[in-house]
């Protein structure tokens, strides 16, 4: 559906924000773009939206170059919610529906009713933009984007500013909506819950991409061993491991080689175990570790 | 068309929170200024008409160059663009809605001044010509305001430069003072605007055809520039 081909963005000051980025978004898929601050995520989004011109490369929708296409394909929620301060939320939503030409559309109203009920919007729909909190403004932007029933929903850190309860409601709604969504996020849980496929971006380049199954295999993620013995463990036994923590004698050890971990456990058999747990890498670990690595 | 209408209504609604500011800037200040003009003409009919036509053009300069120009310039700010990107609306519709909204915004001042002109000068006014010339002046100045707004993409720079430019336009155009015809005044399109207005109420007897030609040429150049800017969807290229 959305096909980004070798997109590079070089700003007039010479700064390269995106470097040969290629990615794909299929219909009904939720794709995440993850990366540290300043990695080029928002620049890529702005290029998709047509607010920035790619220096090289092309952005295609259903095989057609976006530059030559007319119409609104995207619903968009920016990272920082900015809503017209002098209109009520109800007016903003009505305005959106009128502009989109779906003011009498039953499906749009159905979605709207659902969103009103999920986020309790009725309570504050007659308030002005300047009277709302950051989280409420974010919800307004989400509602405005979603009620347009866009071909592709682009969300730049959709759940930042939201409380955990609202976040979970939003995730559930998005997951059940079967919309085509492209999102950026720093929230591991959000990526884990929502994304079918993930792209990692660092310094403007896609450094890794994969689905939930591919991520642990590709990265050979470490297993985590948590161990506490009554006696002192000789240092030489642990010297070849990455020790994340050793407070109160409880060692948290990472290793990509499960055999080495098993040998360590075997060599500690003569000690008195007070605690032992072996945690296999899962999707959350994978994301977290990859993010830690890339965010350095 | 429906989108443009909705966008204009939306812009008008936005003025609600600035009710007092609008009352002051739309009625109290300009009309009291016009009252002062009328007080200082000493009852001279010719002078009153001369200054009132100047007032019409001055009001349009203030509205289009300062207010509309600033609004268009503000539209170029990345965060404002991002905000609009969230709505199913194009740059062209937004910019046109600004233009029509500010045209309606300035209308009361123009209507009041025109009524006074009509009362003073009912015998020698050519209404069709007068209204046509007011519209031509509005098109010229709105084009100028929008061009300047699109030109100064940096809103913070525009905030300083556009009011200054308004003042320069007021200064170099014989709106409130008499000036002999010279090349300096001839190249100023706003001079042509005020000359045409004065012609339509019988204050100017000279040849005006070249003023029409000049203004139409000027409008075409501005339209070309504005159209190019509006058609371009890439608006964040310049760093802020």
Would you mind describing this structure in some detail?
- The complex is a heterodimer of chains A (296) and B (240).
- Chain A is of the alpha/beta class and 296 residues long.
- Chain A folds into two domains: 2-217, P-loop containing nucleotide triphosphate hydrolases (Rossmann fold), CATH 3.40.50.300; 222-280, 2-Layer Sandwich (Alpha-Beta Plaits).
- Chain A is 34% helix and 28% strand.
- In chain A, the strands form three sheets. Chain A has a six-stranded mixed beta sheet, sandwiched between helices. A four-stranded antiparallel beta sheet of chain A has the order 2-1-4-5, covered by helices on one side.
- Chain B has 240 residues and is an all-alpha fold.
- Chain B has one domain (2-14, 43-231).
- Chain B contains ten helices and no strands.
- Chain B has helices at 2-14, 19-39, 45-75, 78-85, 91-120, 127-151, 155-172, 183-186, 189-200, 209-231.
- Chain B is globular.
- Classes of the chains: A alpha/beta (296), B mainly alpha (240).
- Chain A binds chain B through residues 11-13, 46, 49-53, 72, 74-78, 80, 82-87, 91, 95-96, 98-101, 128, 141, 144-145, 148, and chain B through 2-3, 6-7, 10, 13-18, 78-83, 85-89, 233-239.
Unreliable spans of chain A are: none
Quantity of strands of chain B, as a count: 0
The overall strand count of chain A is: 14
The profile of the biggest β sheet of chain A is: 6 strands, mixed
Strand content of chain A: 25-35%
Given helix and strand content, the structural type of chain B is: mainly alpha
What order do the helices and strands of chain B follow? HHHHHHHHHH
What is the chain-wise order of helices and strands of chain A? EEEHEEEHHHEHEHEEHEHEEHEH
CATH-defined architecture of the largest domain in chain A = 3-Layer(aba) Sandwich
Spatial order of the strands in the main sheet of chain A?
6-7-8-3-9-10
Number of structural units classed as domains of chain B: 1
Major interchain interface with per-chain residue totals: A-B, 34 and 29 residues
Q: In percent terms, what proportion of residues of chain B is strand?
A: under 5%
């Amino acid at each position: 559906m959305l096909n980004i081909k070798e997109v590079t963005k070089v700003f007039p000051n010479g700064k390269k924000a995106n470097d040969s980025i290629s990615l794909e978004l299929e219909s009904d898929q939720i794709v995440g773009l993850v990366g540290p601050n300043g990695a080029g995520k928002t620049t890529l989004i702005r290029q998709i939206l047509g607010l920035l011109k790619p220096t090289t490369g092309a952005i295609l929708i259903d095989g057609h170059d976006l530059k030559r296409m007319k119409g609104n394909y995207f619903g968009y929620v920016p990272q920082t919610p900015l809503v017209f301060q002098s209109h009520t939320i109800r007016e903003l939503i009505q305005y959106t529906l009128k502009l989109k030409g779906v003011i009498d559309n039953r499906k749009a109203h159905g979605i709207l009713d659902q969103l009103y009920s999920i986020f309790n919007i009725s309570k504050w729909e007659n308030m002005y933009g300047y009277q709302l909190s950051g989280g409420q403004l974010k919800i307004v932007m989400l509602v405005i984007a979603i009620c347009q029933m866009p071909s592709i929903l682009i969300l730049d850190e959709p759940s930042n500013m939201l409380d955990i309860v609202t976040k979970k409601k939003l995730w559930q709604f998005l997951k059940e909506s079967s919309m085509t969504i492209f999102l950026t996020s720093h929230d591991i849980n959000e990526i884990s819950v929502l994304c079918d496929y993930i792209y990692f971006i660092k310094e403007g380049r896609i450094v890794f991409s994969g689905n939930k199954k591919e991520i642990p295999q590709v990265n050979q993620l470490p297993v985590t061993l948590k161990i506490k013995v009554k006696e002192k463990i000789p240092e030489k036994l642990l010297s070849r491991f990455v020790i994340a923590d050793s407070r109160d004698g409880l060692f948290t050890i990472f290793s990509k080689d499960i055999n080495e971990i098993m040998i360590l456990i075997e060599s500690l058999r003569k000690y008195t175990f007070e605690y032992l747990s072996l945690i296999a890498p899962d999707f959350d670990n994978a994301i977290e570790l990859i993010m830690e690595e890339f965010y350095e | 068309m429906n989108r443009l209408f909705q966008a204009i209504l939306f812009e008008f609604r936005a003025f609600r929170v600035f009710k007092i500011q609008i009352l002051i800037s739309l009625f109290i200040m300009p009309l009291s200024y016009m009252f002062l003009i009328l007080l200082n003409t000493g009852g001279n009919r010719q002078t009153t008409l001369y200054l009132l036509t100047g007032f019409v053009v001055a009001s349009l300069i203030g509205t289009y160059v300062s207010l509309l120009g600033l609004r268009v310039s503000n539209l170029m700010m990345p965060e404002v663009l991002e905000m609009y990107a969230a709505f199913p609306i194009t740059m062209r519709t937004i910019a046109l809605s600004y233009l029509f909204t500010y045209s309606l915004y300035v209308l009361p001042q123009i209507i009041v001044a025109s009524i006074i002109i009509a009362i003073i000068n009912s015998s020698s006014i050519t209404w069709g010509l007068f209204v046509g010339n007011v519209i031509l002046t509005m098109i010229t100045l709105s084009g100028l305001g929008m061009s300047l707004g699109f030109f100064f993409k940096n809103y913070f720079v525009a905030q300083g430069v556009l009011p200054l430019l308004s003042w320069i336009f007021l200064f170099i155009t014989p709106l409130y003072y008499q000036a002999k015809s010279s090349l300096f005044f001839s190249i100023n399109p706003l001079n042509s605007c005020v000359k045409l207005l004065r012609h339509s109420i019988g204050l100017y007897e000279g040849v005006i055809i070249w003023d029409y030609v000049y203004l139409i040429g000027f409008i075409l150049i501005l339209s070309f520039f504005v159209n190019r800017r509006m058609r371009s969807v890439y608006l964040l290229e310049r760093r802020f």
